[in-house]
Amino acid sequence: VLYIPNIVALIGLGLAVDYSLLIQHRFRSELKVNSSVDQAVIETMRSAGRTVVLSGFIVTGGLACLLLMPIPFVRSLGVAGALVPLISIACALTLQPALLSYFGRKGSTPRKFHGIWERERGANSLITRVTKLVIKKPKLVFLTSTFTLLIAATPMLSLSLTPSSMSAIPKNLESAAALNWAAEKAGAGSITPIAIIMDLGSSGAALSNESKSARIALANSISANPEVFTVAGGEKSPYIDATGRYLRILVISKSEFGSPQTQALVKEIREKYLPESEFPKTVPIFVGGAAAQGVDLIEKLKSTLPLIILFTLLFAFFLLARTFKSIVLPLKAIVLNLLSTSVSYAAIVLVFKYGVGSTLLNTHQVEEIEAWVLIFIFAILFGLTMDYEVFLLSRMKEAIDLGATNEHAIEESLAKTIGVITAAAAVMFVAVMGLASGHFAGLQELGIGLAVGVAIDATIIRTFLLPSTMVLLGRWNWWLPKLFTSQR
Fold it and tell me: Is the peptide bond before 238 cis (omega within 30 degrees of 0)?
């Protein structure tokens, strides 16, 4: 939960930069064809303003879907995260046009930077050459880009999850030294023991001979497990309450609470040892503690994440289909989004599990990735990459509506937006790499994943894969079934 304010601020920074750059860039273009500053502002908001609203609503819907997750700290990101794009939209539609109108041409480009901006066309000549290559050989570019990204995403197949990890705590902290000492002397699971709680129904029942016999038998059975360091129990506090009704047994694992071994032990206790115990079947038995909570967390994530992804993608699909009058473009956008997300997951596995570049980046090396990171990366990366998608498609749609061919629309939209997308992605890349420079593994994983996802999306996907796909699809890019056109 402590991470949420920093992550929400990160989302706000990314969206604010995206929207302000898009509007500013369009305003500068409109000033070249409009002598009136106010008219340039109006035309800017008529085009770029609509793009910002569409993008903001898609991001809001994606983050709001996190409310489906029955985990409080994930829901908190959903609530706070959904408010951020709405506030960004409000600022982009009110404050920014007011500032543009007030400062006019003075706020467009400082005179001393005119030379830099004048070289923009020279920079775009490289983009033009790349675009012409894509248009000339779309199959080659498409196959090469797709193959490269699929190969890059393969490490994701070895992804394994943990609720958290004690080994991810910075070693230079005094508390970490104490944890390591306790783990060495009393077992790694002594910090977070597995707690078995029983309600025997009446006062003194936990002190009966039958209860004592069943407790000892259960403890001996669990102790035989090779993963168990020790089992603690007794007839006094903290194992039996003052009334003698409630009984507690503590199981200390040899491995830390987030490890696969401890997760397997929790499941064995629940599914094997407790059902086979001598306690009556009517006795309510609960397995708790950090280790059990971690197992429950991962199970909830695994069962709910597909639903969240489905709702998020459906929401984006319908908004994009309604805006661009096509069902092909939304499907393509979703596939490309999932591809960049997969590569970001693979990057996390490479860096943190296999240690690729971990020395250079000064990151932890762990066997499992913290489960909450995957959800946050999907939600945040979905919003940012969909921003870039909407920026490009909006320009393409404008060109198509003005009578441009498919190839010319692709070339023109890339020339006019790739600079904005690259600048926004660069700012976001630097910002999220700040998380990667932190001391905790979870934040490092989040930072590396977002940085790689943003970089891949703004370069390979937007420059090569997206335009080559649109060239190959041709007129099918704008296909909408008659069933939907009749309802327009």
Answer: yes
* Token pair 């506090």 in the structure block, residue: 237
Length of the chain: 488
* Burial of 415: CB neighbours in 10 Å, binned 0-12, 13-18, 19+: middle
Which residue reads 């070249």 in tokens? 32
pLDDT digits (tens, 9 = 90+) for 438-453: 777 888 898 899 999 9
DSSP state of 94: T
CA-to-CA separations, 376 to 155, 259, 371, in angstroms, rounded = 19, 21, 9
SS3 465: helix
Helices (H) and strands (E) in the chain — how many of each?
Answer: 19, 6
Four-point Cα dihedral 199, 201, 206, 209, nearest 10 = -130
Cβ proximity of 272 and 232 under 8 Å = no
CATH fold of 169-293 reads Alpha-Beta Plaits (3.30.70)
Element (H or E) spanning 195, and its range?
A: strand 194-199
User: Residue 231: helix, strand or coil by DSSP?
Assistant: strand
Which residues partner with 137 through β-bridges? none
For 7, 133, 344, 381, the CA distances from 76, given in Å and listed in that order, are 11, 46, 23, 18
Q: What is the pLDDT of residue 165?
A: 66
Name the helix (H) or strand (E) containing 230: strand 228-232
For the chain, the domains span 4-166+304-485, 169-293
Architecture of domain 4-166+304-485: Up-down Bundle (1.20)
Residue matched to tokens 């069902």: 327
Does the pLDDT of residue 346 top 80, yes or no? yes
Least confident of 177-191, 192-206, 214-228: 177-191
Q: Where are the alpha helices (DSSP H) in 325-405?
A: 328-348, 358-361, 371-401
User: Which tens digit of pLDDT belongs to each residue from 103-123?
Assistant: 887 766 555 545 444 444 444
List, in sequence order, the alpha helices (H) in 286-327. 290-324
Q: How far is CA 486 from CA 314, 481, 482, in A?
A: 21, 9, 6
Q: Residue 396: CB partners within 8 Å, gap ≥ 6?
A: 409, 410, 412, 413, 470
Mapping DSSP to helix (H, G, I), strand (E, B) and coil, where does residue 251 land? strand
| C-alpha distance from residue 176 to each of 49, 173, 345, 368, 446 (Å) | 50, 5, 28, 19, 22
The mean of the pLDDT values for the chain is: 84
d(CA 417, CA 26): 9
3-state secondary structure of 197: strand
Q: Which two tokens stand for residue 417?
A: 């937006």
- β partners of residue 321: none
Task: Give the span between the Cα atoms of 72 and 300, in whole angstroms.
Answer: 12
- For 316-334, what is the mean pLDDT? 89
What per-residue confidence (pLDDT) applies to 123? 46
